[in-house]
Here is the input.
Amino acid sequence: METRLQTDADRAPRTFLQPDIDGDIRSGFWAKPAPEVMRLLGTLPKGLSSTQAHERWERYGPNVLEAPATAKALRTFVSQFMSPLVLVLVIAAAIAMFVGDMQDAVIIWVIVVFTCILSFVQEYRASGAMERLKRTIARTAIVLREGSEDTVPVDELVPGDIIRLEAGSLIPADSIVINAVGFEVDESILTGEAFPAAKAVGVSAIDAPMVDRSNVLFAGTSARSGSAKALVVNTGRQTEFAKIAVAIERQESETDFARGIRQFGYLMVQVMLTIVVVVLAANVLLQRPIIDSLLFSLALAVGLTPELLPAIIAVTLARGALRMEEKGVIVRRLAAIENLGSMDLLCTDKTGTLTEGVIRLSAAVDVSGTPAHSVIQWAGLNATMETGLPNPLDEAIRASVAISGLDLSGFTKVWEVPYDFARKRLSVICRDAANANTDLMVCKGALTSVIEISSSISSGAETRPLSIDDRASIERLYRKWSDEGHRVLGIAIRQFQHRRSYGREDEADLTFVGFLLFQDTPKQGVSEVLKALAHKGVRTKIISGDNRYAVCHLAREIGLPHRHILAGKELLHLSDDALFARASRTDVYCEIDPNQKERIVRALRRRGHVVGYLGDGINDAPALKMADVGVSVESAVDVAREAADIVLLRKDLRVLLTGIDDGRRTFVNTMKYISITTSANFGNMISMACASLFLPFLPLLAKQILLNNFLSDIPALAIAGDSVDKELTERPPQWDIADIRRFTFTFGLTSSFFDLLTFAFLIWGVHASSAIFQTAWFVVSLLTELGIIVIIRTRRPAWKSAPSRALLVLTTIVAALGLLLPYQTVIPVFGFVPLPMSVLGGVITITVIYMVSCETLKHLFIKHRHFRVRAMKMRVVP
Here is the structure.
């Protein structure tokens, strides 16, 4: 529980935070003046005393990001077995052991253990993100204590400390500015804003997003220019930086694919329990031997279980990961491949993801907005001769000068009036070798600041007094360019008779000559990638910490919708339900804090979307963790890569398209196995359960059921590499347990109908003995299960969609083996007997009719599904 400070201003400062204000200070300190925050924290102008610092350190702990406690390895490993499907397989293995089929039990156990070990390794490695975060924070800081400055380890800082910062310093804790001179901070690591943020003494609105808190310094950011003193308010796990860390270390939310597997597991558990109870009870009522009845019902349950599903998923995902790695995509979490294929919504940060993350000078124009060679020359003189710390704006100007081939060697520097935050401008005085008696002052800075010291304006060869109409024209141009996402600076000049020195007082009566327009440009080819994503059914939304003008301009430039906008300030006042209602229809999220990004992703997932998030900064880490699939790039900060499920090794986002196709193929092949196995097994198990109630003997022995199940699963292993119809990868596939249930019952009952037809043929047609009946029905059951693989693996007519070579070969081999087994007397343990030719001919005929019927039924089912989906979409209100 947070404590609070006393509010009585007349009381003497205490040596630690009091119980009645602490919570307010530590959550909204940016809305109070710095002197008041100092008073509330009990800090004197000479800083804290050693005793105060020690007491607060004891109370609040070290200023570090404590890594989460390492999970117990055994507990983490055991947790992998908590999936309903895994539990089903564990029970199935135990049943197989109970009925004496050690071979099937061993196979199931190997699959289960291998899959759980793979998941365990992936989960155990995830804790590395916290270590990355810890190493990003500064290690020492200059702190004022008892009137003297000392260099202390960062972990010894406490709330109430006064720290001194200079250009190049890493900010060690969340602090409020006490004083600042030209202090600018690179906050891109948190806010995503490419331009440095100017910091000064002041007050920010209580609901101001991070990007607008101009009086606050955030832990983990870095000073680009100037100097400042600041009062430490939040340390350690209370900083904004740490809140991101907390979001990263939280347990991963359940993804769409994981949720589908869990729901499928529950479905299998329900069906298995129903079969076991009903069949066992019915056989007991018929006074069958209890042990045989129990073994038979348990064998039916095992026969229904898709025991190779974890192996199919693991093999399919591993193949997909290898293919993606060859194309420049590293898969950190295998399940993310399935989610990538199912993704229907991609959320992405702006800076460094959709843009280059490098500020460029997009234009140097005169007062009318026309590109002017003279303006870039003046800007070049200012940027190349200034001696302040490097900043991205001057770097962009110098790069533009180099590209344009301007020769500035004829000028020499005479003087410099350095930049400071109050003036928001920098002036350089230089001399042209061709005119040694005249000095030229070139002033560059914030547009309003430059206009303040200008008394005239130059338009071409004409120079005239700066009028009200001129100011209005300049304002219109400024708004226009700002709306287009540019950062606009002004350029003004003045000539002097040569003298030895200059000062700030000389920045007066300048002539305004033009504008400098800067922009963080989109990455090459990003528009085409986004169009291709839209063609594949993946919508894109921008979630950025940048201002709305920059974000909307980028959206226009790269072809994304930007009509509906939601800003961070507005989001602060929205409840989760209100955000849920607006999330899908909002095109652009701007001025967003890192934790708000996570909240947006959560709302979109709640709307039923399978959400991917693409980002490369620390500010993106929580959203990367929350998304169904987090995607980052190789150039991202370490923490973003650790939080991501998939990392693109090349900045070319086209590889993301390849990953989506691979993910969809993987999903489709997984669903093939589920559809094939559940429908075929369900039909056969229902048939045997019914037959057991009327036959004087069991339709199949338990060991025959397990052998049938084992043989039919061999070709299924090849489904992982099966070819996929192109039309199945054009739209995002999604789990639909209700559709799986309908499919299972439709084809399962069809299979049961032909099973009953087979029973009638064997009992009344050829008067088969129990051994011939069991052998014949084993062959029919195996052949129909193999046949359904060929039919159901494609939505096209089976003869128009060739299976992979491995699947075709394995299916043929197992079918041949099934036909030969009755004649192999060397394997008498399974109780098979040779089949008369009349029986074998009937078995093959029934199998052929069954396959033709399933092909017809498949097209009817797909047609009915299409109309059902269309009807559902018509009922959905946008």
